[in-house]
Amino acid sequence: MYSTGNRIAWLQGPNANCAKTGPVAPRPWHLVLLGPPGVGKGTQAEKIIGEFGACHLSTGDVFRHAARSTEAAAPSPAMATALAAMKRGELVSDGTVVELVRERAQCLACQYGFLLDGFPRTLDQAHALDGILARVERKLDAALNYFAPEPVIIARLSGRRVCSQCRAGYHVANKPPRVADRCDACGGALIQREDDEPEAIRTRLRAYAATCDPVLDYYRRQGLLREIDASGDPEAVFAQTRAVIQRLQPARAG
After folding, report:
1. Can you give the residue ranges of every domain in the chain?
2. Is 139 in the active site?
3. Catalytic one of 104, 156, 160, 161
4. pLDDT digit string (tens) for 86-138?
5. Is 161 a catalytic residue?
6. Quick one: pLDDT at residue 70?
7. Catalytic residue at 121?
8. Architecture in CATH of 8-148+212-252
9. What is the pLDDT of residue 254?
10. Is 202 tagged catalytic?
11. Which of the four pLDDT bands, split at 50, 70 and 90, describes residue 145?
């Protein structure tokens, strides 16, 4: 297994430094992970990291870290804008998300490579990513698009539970706790997030569908898009993912 950075610079911003130890993969991969919420990108990212290396750079992780951070350092102007929008229950604007990624450009140049998750979500963000990568002299190897039928995604997301105290994650079918409705780690009550209720999931899927096609078409025209059916179990989906990445390797040989 290859090592990765600890993502501190990604989570905290440009003034933080990652700890980087251990072997680096001989070919760092630069991949974008696309697909609707609940399709399993996070699970596949963990498996890609284990076999091929690279840091999982999720914009969702950046927002979650900032929202619960108690650090004394003031957030950057872009992060302050994002947090204010989130507090009002609004979506973070394209421009703000782009600026947050731009602040973290050094993470995209990391020796370990990257799996970029949650960005780009719109065509404007895809164009902005091209500019950021050009500045750090990196190019995408592929955009992996995971897809699954809506009923499969709803079943996956509606089964998720989170500990009300330590925030550990579970799933009623795929990762149940040892004691029903209780966290294995701290004994806290497990709850369902409001955005994991079926109607909320349908709303999120509609929002994703409204912006995804231009992004898919953009990467398709560049020959970077790779489609992966994520309706099966995680191991079956990763078998497809592994095959896709392995087929990319000859193109990198030169």
Report:
1. 8-148+212-252, 149-196
2. no
3. 160
4. 888 788 899 999 999 999 999 999 888 999 999 999 999 999 999 999 999 99
5. no
6. 61
7. yes
8. 3-Layer(aba) Sandwich (3.40)
9. 40
10. no
11. very high
